[in-house]
Amino acid sequence: MNNLQTERKQKDDFFKRHPQSPLTPEQQAKFTSLSYYDYNPDLDINVNIEPFAEQKFVQIQTTTGDMKRFKRYGEFKFTADGEETRLTLYEADYGFFLPFVDANAGTETYPAGRYLEPEQLGDTLFNVDFNNAYNPYCAYGDGWSCPITPPENRLKVAIRAGEKIPQGEWVAKT
């Protein structure tokens, strides 16, 4: 948990001060911090991915209408908010990618979803720590091209971990 707090402070500092921050200079001047759920140990899980027999490449549309190519790698089941559910894991050039939308989208979490990069621990064993779930840069303003969460990863349960919907005077009004 101490690592998580340190990472969150570093991310806030990056958003506030770094020239490559996704925020405009006007937003950076007003920025205080991102909003997060408290650490939830129940959503820091190790899961066995069931690889798909046929791992096809799919095109996922972005917020700007572009298409990005990902491989549908496999799926896993887990329990959240008292319900068993499943998610599909994708593979990208840079590693594994897990976009998802939860039941709190639009009220507590970003409506278009959040992202994770699960850590592969073994052949099919992965660490999926939803406490590290983050908003795509398009949550902070226009001009970013973010993959839109596919329908198969739109959950009917709440994932109360990770970043919340951006809040504060610094949030861009679109």
Task: Give an account of the 3D structure.
The chain has one domain (2-153). It is α+β, with helices and mostly antiparallel strands and 174 residues long. 13% of the residues lie in helices and 30% in strands. It has two helices and nine strands. Strand 3 (57-61) and strand 4 (67-80) form a beta hairpin. It has helices at 2-17, 25-30; strands spanning 44-48, 50-51, 57-61, 67-80, 83-92, 95-100, 114-116, 119-120, 125-129.
Label this structure with key terms.
174 residues, three-stranded antiparallel sheet
Helix-strand layout with pairing:
Layout: H1 2-17, H2 25-30, E1 44-48, E2 50-51, E3 57-61, E4 67-80, E5 83-92, E6 95-100, E7 114-116, E8 119-120, E9 125-129
Antiparallel strand pairs: 1-9, 2-4, 3-4, 4-5, 5-6, 6-7, 8-9
**Span between N and C termini?**
34 Å
Q: Spell the H/E element sequence.
A: HHEEEEEEEEE
Number of spatially distinct domains: 1
Helix content: 10-25%
The proportion of residues in beta strands is 25-35%
Concise structural overview:
The chain is α+β, with helices and mostly antiparallel strands and 174 residues long. It has 2 helices and 9 strands; from the N terminus they run H-H-E-E-E-E-E-E-E-E-E.
